[in-house]
Amino acid sequence: MGLLLAGNQFVRDLDQAGALAMYVPPEGGFEGRYQRRLRTAGYPTLHLSAPGLGDLSAYLTQVHGIRPAHTGKENIRVYFRPPLVTYHLENLPPQAKGLALWLIDGKKLSRQELAYLSLLTQQEPRLKIVVEVGGARDVQWQPLSTIAQAA
């Protein structure tokens, strides 16, 4: 019964704060239950690894170029991709409340990047962000803005 109550509190806290910093046990598995709570509350989830994102503002909200590895035998190509978050927000199902962006390994993000993610949820209220920023014995969370200020 504790997870049921904690899961509902997690969704309420995410609705209120917009972005949460989450501490999860290193063995994993517990965060999947909270992701299911988000999906049942009307938030489809999008999972990404935080260190490989590069420039967050370009990757999440702007059209950006991607260059595959160059082997020296071909011309250098640039493929342009649509903005990840904007694209998914435009194509949400009608019954969805918004989009939940779940970033793993967020402890490698800088303070400025964490502050940007917190600001992004204020600019786009349908977007909710959860960043796994560290480990703990049990699942804990707090608003991402407090982590960005303290880091």
UniProtKB/TrEMBL annotation:
Could you tell me which species this protein originates from?
A: Pseudocalidococcus azoricus BACA0444
Protein's UniProt keywords contain Transmembrane helix:
no
**Family as reported in the entry's similarity comment:** Belongs to the complex I NdhN subunit family.
What job does this protein perform?
Answer: NDH-1 shuttles electrons from an unknown electron donor, via FMN and iron-sulfur (Fe-S) centers, to quinones in the respiratory and/or the photosynthetic chain. The immediate electron acceptor for the enzyme in this species is believed to be plastoquinone. Couples the redox reaction to proton translocation, and thus conserves the redox energy in a proton gradient. Cyanobacterial NDH-1 also plays a role in inorganic carbon-concentration.
Name the chain's protein: NAD(P)H-quinone oxidoreductase subunit N
Q: Could you tell me the EC number(s) of this protein? A: 7.1.1.-
Class of the enzyme per the UniProt entry, highest EC level: translocase
- Predominant subcellular localization, coarse grouping: membrane
Give the signal peptide range. Answer: none
Q: Name one GO cellular component term.
A: plasma membrane-derived thylakoid membrane
> Membrane topology per the record?
Peripheral membrane protein
